[in-house]
Amino acid sequence: MGTIDSVLKENRLFPPSDDFRVKANVSGMDGYNALCEKANSDYAGFWGELARELVSWKKPFTKVLNDSNAPFFKWFEDGEMNVSYNCLDRHLEARGNKVAIIFEADDGSVSRVTYRELYHRVCQFANGLKSLGVKKGDRVVIYMPHGVEAIIAMQASARIGAIHSVVFGGFSAGALRDRIQDAAAKVVITANETVRGGKTTPLKSITDEALGLGGCDSVEKVVVFQRTSAKPEHWSEERNIWWHKLVKDQADECEPEWVNAEDPLFILYTSGSTGKPKGVQHSSAGYFLGTQVTMKWVFDYKDSDVYWCTADVGWITGHSYIAYGPLGIGATQVVFEGVPTYPDASRFWQMIEKHEVTTFYTAPTAIRSLIKLGGDLPKQYDLSSLRLLGTVGEPINPEAWMWYHEVVGGGRCPIVDTWWQTETGANMIAPLPGAAATKPGSCTLPLPGIMADIVDESGAPVEAGKGGFLVISKPWPSMVRTIWGDPDRFKKTYFPEDYNGKLYLAGDSAHRDENGYIWIMGRIDDVLNVSGHRLGTMEIESALVANPLVAEAAVVGKPHDIKGESVVAYVVLKSSRPEGDDAKKIAKELREWVAHEIGKIAQPDEIRFGDNLPKTRSGKIMRRLLRDIAKGAEITADTSTLENPAILEQLRQSAI
Ligand code: WT7
């Protein structure tokens, strides 16, 4: 692949209104360009100034960037601070009584927590963790329902200098065990159950199952938040402790642990192109700075805003734009436990009206499913409080963008299409809403200080209109620091030798149009994007072959109207190829198996059985062929190197 052809053509332009532009934190393209120039002429000075403005330091840094051990960059390395202090304590004087969180539970009940209350609850829980022996640098796994307590757990961990690893509540016992084991966590924080869309999931039982799988000897205590009245199946007096009992007699003040700017704040696992998820390790100060700068520039934060990001804390979006970004800047935010379609597809619109939301950040997949379930529903609600909309997770198709703009935003709200990754920590490419005119489907321009480029295989920039690899050519404060326990993999994955280790390779293909706007075209590695979630094909394949029935498996993505991509698995059984009802039965069993091994999000939508897989003579599975077959498309790939051409016809007819 030299360069990649791009096909999308979209010329509609949506400039911000004069009113929005005038009031914006970065006003007009002049404002944007001035920031870019500053970053270009004095990179360290630019970031140093922002770090002094947006982060409260216990001990100020004297050095901005240390690149002597690239790609293990250090930012603000002699500074000391605490992220929880920055999110709570520093607001107490000016906005102690301001609502920090408007929490809406799955069943619609609403509670509010002020900054002062949140501060005391975080302090109490931090003291509770300390009483369990958790110290600076210890790992704490958080496997909780999306809600106030999950945020408290993260903040408390940050407060005492521990390193959290949040595991999304939809992951299975196996996935949880792998993450506990890789991080050698001392404490796991969970809940008896989660409630989403009216259904419960027994997190405590899954945690017990995970610990029972072995390899989790590091775990000393499991803290259990009581979300519902359901009694846990098992209770170990030695290992388990209820959240409410842990905090009961704890003081509601807790001096923060002052950490070094580079001390890790958290690990978050994400899929890559091997079977093993990567523990993306983030720093404290640089990461936090990334969240603050983008809250200000991209979300154009104003004190009067009611901000709502619909992600779950189990993902990076929930870390940067729920647990840290909005609290750091002192925002009032809505936190929603449930799903967009329960009790019906008007839930989001009803909540925007009820809480007078001004800033709404969601995913293209949610937008597409809500269009399908009721494209007119937003019109029944008063959405006039909205002033800014955002999307994240995958490219948004122009039709969905236009609907979001017109029907939800009433034609008046800029849309910030934010490109970023678990590894980047914060938004990287996105319109500044009071500056850039947006185009449906483009994430537009790199943020000031973010040196994004599109290059060919040799690392040379490609010309406009030509596709290439998206790279970042200078380190930035909120970047991933390493892969937990695997610095070699960090180097190889993100700073490959192909580019002399000098460019951060994002793993996406992209092109620039004639205005310099960036269009993301998709992943270049074996990573799928299903409903905005990253899934490694290898990870699903290893789960499948772990099943005693399966000899071999290959997983590919297939375009899907709502999810963006869906998972298709080609499976060769150890026994002969099943047909008819037999095939259906085994397919169902394998789908359940994957849900149990990884989680429901990784379940194949389709399973096809073959006697074999299409391979080259050297034994490499020809995935492009499998993708074509999954799509039902004409096979365009070169099949001359195929060892067993007859298999193609069989697989084509293998849909069940
Ligand atoms: C991958 C990162 C960043 C939080 C959510 C996902 C894709 C993300 C966009 C966007 C086009 C996007 C990329 C990226 N992606 N945002 N606005 N336009 N593609 O985080 O799980 O780390 O996935 O999501 O492919 O590499 P993640």
Q: What would you say this structure looks like, in words?
A:
By secondary structure, this protein is α/β, with parallel strands linked by helices. The chain is built from 20 helices and 31 strands. An 8-stranded mixed sheet has the order 13-12-9-7-8-15-16-24, sandwiched between helices. It has a 7-stranded mixed sheet with strand order 6-5-18-17-19-20-21, sandwiched between helices. β5 (99-104) and β6 (110-114) form a beta hairpin. α2 packs across α3 (43-54), α6 packs across α7 (148-159) and α14 crosses α15 (398-408). The longest helix is centred in the C-terminal third of the chain and has 18 residues, at 580-597. The mean pLDDT is 96. Bound molecules: 5'-O-[(S)-butoxy(hydroxy)phosphoryl]adenosine (WT7). 5'-O-[(S)-butoxy(hydroxy)phosphoryl]adenosine binds next to α12, β21, β25 and β26.
List keywords for this structure.
single chain, 656 residues, alpha/beta, 8-stranded mixed β-sheet, 7-stranded mixed β-sheet, 20 helices, 31 strands, 31% helix, globular, binds 5'-O-[(S)-butoxy(hydroxy)phosphoryl]adenosine
Report low-confidence residues grouped into runs of 5 or more.
none
Tell me the quaternary state.
Answer: single chain
The average pLDDT is 96
What is the tally of helical segments? Answer: 20
Strand content: 15-25%
Q: How would you describe the shape?
A: globular
Sheet with the most strands?
A: 8 strands, mixed
Tally of DSSP β-strands: 31
Bound molecules: 5'-O-[(S)-butoxy(hydroxy)phosphoryl]adenosine
**Radius of gyration from the CA trace?**
24 Å
Derived from helix and strand composition plus strand pairing, the structural class reads: alpha/beta
Distance between the termini: 34 Å
Helix content range: 25-40%
Q: If strands are numbered along the chain, what order do they take across the biggest sheet?
A: 13-12-9-7-8-15-16-24
